[in-house]
Write a structure and sequence with these properties.
The complex is a heterodimer of chains A (192) and B (192). Chain A is mainly α and 192 residues long. Chain A contains six helices and four strands. Chain A has helices at residues 4-23, 28-32, 42-66, 82-91, 117-138, 160-187, and strands at 68-69, 141-142, 147-150, 153-159. In chain A, helix 4 packs parallel to helix 6 (160-187). Chain A is globular. With 192 residues, chain B is an alpha+beta fold. Chain B contains nine helices and eight strands. The longest helix of chain B is centred in the C-terminal third of the chain and has 25 residues, at 123-147. Classes of the chains: A mainly alpha (192), B alpha+beta (192). Chains A and B meet through helix 1 of A and helix 8 of B.
Chain lengths: 192, 192
């Protein structure tokens, strides 16, 4: 029995619990501090994840709402493209290393001020819960042929399943980044 | 509505439930309904409830490295269900629990579950026997998996299998018995 959506749900829950257990309890100084001028703080990473979710969540929710229910005993099938597979592969970290350095789009650049700390974390949970609900509902829907526009626009699209896979791999990549930032700002804690 | 007879039947093979315990459970157990294929517990999350099955069949499974569901256990009316190790350790669950058809479960939250043994130390006898039963069941299953052929596993399962389980899709039963659905189907046809 294939368990495509369950795997993604397990990974998504693991990320959510990492943020809840390892990030949220930290002193705000750690969340706002950057290892250097060019890099992001932990809070900026989370704000970036929120911006990415903003780009995809509504389209994913609409797709789920409009999809037909799978027939009893029906099996969820996933369609993939080479471009989608490369995108997922390039995002997914290898152990605790990000495979490639990459520059984000300008519209995904996080701009943040110190007062936004709690709002940014609350927003993240709200979006994460919406994303997990999409995963739960997708298990029971026929979404095999549905396509979702990427951040590059309507002309470049992911198949539904691969879009979810991409978003999880992207988030896993940023979890590694958060771990790296914390290891740097916690050892070099002068000024905190 | 009291579900006294349900949980008394569940506990009483192990221990006689006193009136005080009955009152405690009556005041704290909450009836939850799950639709077909709903996830009762998700891997990657911590189990929050201890459940007693009122109706329906549930499957406990994990996802193997190839992305397939591997069913490890079933529960049905009169059984306890949920992910016990995650509940008591408050660590993330590696297992999913899925409602195969519609299920009604009596749920006791973690705080009330813990308090039960503080207020009623005699219930520790139940807990000890419950853990012994789980250990013994896991041991028996490992022996069967490692020493028996597919047809021997099928025969042993059919001898102890309650009627409720014979109604569920056979792919779940095949996974539990560690065989392909085609093999299960062939063995079942031969038996009939």
């Amino acid at each position: 029995m294939e368990a495509n959506f369950e795997i993604l749900l397990q990974q998504s829950n693991t990320i959510k619990n990492f943020i809840k257990d390892k990030v949220v309890p930290l002193d705000s100084a750690y969340l706002l501090r950057k290892a250097d001028e060019k890099s992001w703080s932990v809070l900026e990473v989370i704000k970036h994840l929120n911006l990415v979710y903003d780009k995809y969540l509504v389209n994913l929710e609409n797709a789920v709402a409009n999809a037909e229910q799978l027939q009893e005993g029906g099996v969820v099938k996933k369609k993939t493209t080479i471009l989608g597979s490369i995108s997922v592969y390039s995002q997914r970290p290898k152990g605790n290393k990000r495979k490639f350095k990459m520059k984000t789009f300008d519209f995904f650049e996080p701009e943040i001020n110190n007062e936004e700390l709690h709002q940014t974390l609350d927003d993240y949970y709200a979006k994460k819960n919406r994303f997990n609900e999409i995963l739960r509902e997708s298990r029971l829907k026929n979404l095999e042929n549905v396509k979702i526009p990427t951040a590059l626009g309507e002309r470049v699209q992911f198949y539904f399943y691969q879009c979810l896979e991409f978003l999880i791999a992207h988030e896993q990549r940023h979890v590694v980044q958060i771990k790296n930032i914390l290891s740097l700002v916690k050892t070099d804690s002068a000024g905190i | 509505m009291s579900y006294k007879h349900i949980y008394q039947n569940a506990f009483e093979p192990f221990i006689r439930v006193s009136d005080a315990v009955t009152e405690y459970l009556d005041n704290r157990l909450e009836l939850k309904k799950f639709n077909p294929r709903a996830l009762i517990t998700e891997a990657g999350n911590v189990e929050r409830y201890f459940y007693i099955v009122v109706s329906g069949v549930q499957a406990g499974y994990l996802i193997d490295r190839d992305g397939n569901k591997v069913v490890l256990a079933f529960s049905y009316p009169g059984n306890f269900t949920g992910v016990y190790d995650s509940l008591v350790s408050e660590q993330i669950s590696h297992f999913f629990v899925e409602s195969i058809g519609q299920s009604h479960l009596l749920a006791l939250n973690k705080a009330d579950f813990d308090e039960l043994f503080v207020q009623f130390p005699e219930m520790m006898t139940w807990r000890l026997r419950f853990i012994e039963m789980i250990l013994s069941g896991r041991g028996q299953r490992e022996v069967e998996m490692l020493t028996s052929s597919a047809s021997e596993r099928f025969e042993a399962f059919m001898k102890r299998c309650p009627d409720e389980l014979l109604q569920i899709p056979q792919k779940y039963l095949a996974s539990y018995l560690h065989m392909k659905p085609e093999t299960f189907s062939r063995l079942r046809a031969r038996k009939n």
